[in-house]
User: Which sequence fits this backbone?
């Protein structure tokens, strides 16, 4: 019978419970291999250097026997931010020594463009004037400590205990100075951590490269919900999982036979087989999925189990969709935010029970916010600035409360909320915290410049 929350540490004698050599993966293929319901993403290497191959597609149904390995593909050759350094974002940073810290960063991406104004609601007449159809009643909002300027959407009420503990910070008015209202272009910007979105690598992938060691664990970086360009790297490995519920091995004999079959193929397929086994073991720990479980709740439940059972996990990206609320927003957005709140609340409870709360940080991202005025279809269209959450024991309350930045519908720019926080400030804050003992200069190298850090995060543990 599985237990929940999962145990605080894995069985050290279980094969595959620790890492698998990154070198083995790199030698096994020149691109990306998709097998057994996961995509193992790693980079090509040649005498001319290391370049990343595009992530493969996801196969959602695990294979019971390995297929004949295909031939390898050919190699592919608030305040404004501070003044960037001269290091471009396309440069892969080199760390003087890998980090030995054990922190974990969870990035929850709310795909589609979450509506900031109905998430963090300004208690002003300008808000209600702009939104006569979808404006929320002030009396229904969740009060925030230290401020009377804003309230939270009532669906976020389950975050109350986290707020009361001082472990939630809110970045308001976050967005690139010159954003793009296209989902695709904006996602490229956010995933790359670059205003032009053309670095060829992800902001998380560059950090993974900069801190890579010779024997990194296979599950050091995981994408839940599919392939994630934010994890795209030159030399580091990531594992993308579409749906963990697809992973099940009916008996120990079947598990051993499958592992032996994968191991008999290329090193890349052997690595993928090892990942399949580890993920199947993880899936067995999870409670049954209920009809009321949303994607955020399900995937953060998996993230909590991964943190508890894989001590070398460092970066977990969780992707969900549905936040593109052009019509009938009120009910849809309420349900989406209820899933976000429940998922984060359960996640915090689980990592606290497994003894991992002090080493874990969760941040949200979304490609843009929505326009200030509703659109005549009881919804909102693509806008500029948004709002993001930071949840961790490393968050501290400010004198002004939990909100940093501003959402001011009375001070629009082209009918949109004005960006006052660069997204790279959120990234820099998260990477400083994740890196622990590593110098902040490494973060600046990863992001291609120096950016203001969010003041409600404690960069080092006390």
Assistant:
């Amino acid at each position: 019978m599985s237990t929940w929350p999962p145990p605080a540490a894995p069985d050290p004698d279980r094969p595959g419970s620790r890492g698998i050599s990154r070198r083995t993966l790199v030698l096994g293929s020149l691109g990306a291999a998709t097998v057994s319901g996961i995509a193992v993403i790693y980079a090509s290497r040649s005498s001319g250097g290391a370049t990343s191959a595009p992530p493969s597609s996801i196969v959602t149904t695990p294979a019971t026997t390995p297929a004949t390995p295909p031939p390898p593909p050919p190699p592919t050759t608030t305040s404004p931010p501070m003044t960037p350094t001269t290091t471009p974002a396309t440069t892969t940073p080199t760390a003087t020594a890998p980090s030995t810290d054990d922190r974990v960063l969870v990035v929850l991406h709310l795909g589609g463009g979450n509506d900031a104004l109905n998430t963090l609601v300004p208690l002003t007449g300008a808000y209600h004037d702009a939104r006569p159809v979808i404006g929320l009643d002030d009396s229904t909002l969740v009060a925030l400590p230290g401020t009377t300027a804003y309230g939270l959407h009532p669906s976020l009420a389950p975050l109350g205990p986290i707020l009361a503990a001082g472990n939630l910070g809110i970045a308001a008015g976050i967005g690139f100075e010159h954003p793009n209202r296209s989902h695709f272009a904006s996602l490229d910007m956010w995933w790359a951590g670059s205003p032009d979105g053309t670095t060829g690598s992800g902001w998380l992938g560059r950090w993974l490269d900069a801190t890579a060691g010779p024997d990194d664990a296979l599950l050091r970086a995981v994408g839940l919900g599919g392939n994630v360009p934010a994890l795209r790297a030159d030399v580091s490995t990531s594992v993308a999982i579409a749906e963990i519920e697809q992973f099940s091995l009916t008996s120990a004999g079947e598990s051993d036979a499958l592992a032996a079959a994968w191991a008999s193929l290329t090193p890349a397929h052997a690595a993928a087989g090892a990942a399949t086994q580890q993920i199947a073991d993880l899936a067995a720990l999870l409670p049954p999925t209920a009809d009321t479980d949303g994607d955020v709740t399900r995937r953060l439940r998996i993230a909590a189990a991964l943190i508890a059972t894989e001590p070398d996990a460092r970066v977990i990206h969780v992707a969900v969709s549905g936040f593109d609320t052009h019509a009938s927003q009120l009910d849809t957005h309420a349900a989406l935010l209820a899933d976000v709140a429940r998922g984060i609340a359960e996640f915090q409870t689980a990592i606290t029970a497994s003894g991992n709360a002090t080493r874990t940080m969760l941040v949200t991202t979304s490609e843009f916010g929505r326009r200030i005025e509703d659109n005549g279809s009881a919804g909102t269209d693509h806008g500029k600035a948004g709002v993001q959450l930071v949840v961790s024991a490393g968050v501290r309350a400010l004198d002004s409360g939990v909100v940093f930045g501003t959402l001011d519908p009375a001070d629009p720019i082209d009918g949109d909320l004005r960006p006052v926080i660069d997204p790279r400030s959120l990234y820099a804050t998260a990477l400083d915290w994740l890196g622990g003992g590593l110098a902040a200069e490494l973060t600046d190298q990863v992001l291609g410049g120096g950016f203001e850090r969010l003041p409600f995060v404690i960069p080092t543990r006390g």
Notes: The longest helix spans residues 329-353. The chain has a mean pLDDT of 79. The two ends are 38 Å apart (CA to CA).
